Amino acid sequence: MKIHHIAIICSDYAVSKAFYTEVLGLQILREVYREERESYKLDLGIGDHYIIELFSFPNPPKRPSRPESCGLRHLAFSVENVKEKRNELITKGLNCEEIRIDEFTGKEFFFTQDPDQLPLEFYEM
Asked: Which end of the chain is more exposed for a tag (fewer CB within 10 A), N or C?
């Protein structure tokens, strides 16, 4: 039917929470601390649309080396204006790659990364 959500395990909960809420502007839908797991679970959305579960766990293993390791390759967000979004993220201190053109659709996109080096793509709709 559709993708329900994407789960991300972070290495530093406070840093990742600030990144996804303050830098990317996702909204907190629910936040819980699961004492038995020593784990936070933060549900994030765009508007009312639930999209990301951000987890913290004690000592999670590092992500495999990039760029083409097995597993999730990147997380992509739709934006109205790629140039504006890239400039906004640069002013917030992110290192953003140059804008590229999708050879099949002709749409603009660029990549940056979250605090744990998870590649993030911003794709113009």
From this structure: N
Residue 120 belongs to a domain with what CATH number? 3.10.180.10
Edge to edge, the sheet with strand 119-124 lists 75-79, 119-124, 108-113, 100-101
Sheet holding 27-34, edge to edge: 6-10, 49-56, 39-46, 27-34
Q: Are residue 85 and residue 113 in the same domain, yes or no?
A: yes
In this structure, the answer to whether residues 113 and 80 fall within a common structural domain is yes
Confidence of residue 23 (pLDDT cuts 50, 70, 90): very high
Round the average pLDDT of the chain to a whole number and report it.
91
**Average pLDDT score over residue span 56-79:** 81
Residues 122 and 90 in one domain: yes
Do 81 and 120 share a domain, yes or no? Answer: yes
Count of CB atoms situated within 10 Å of the CB of 89: 18
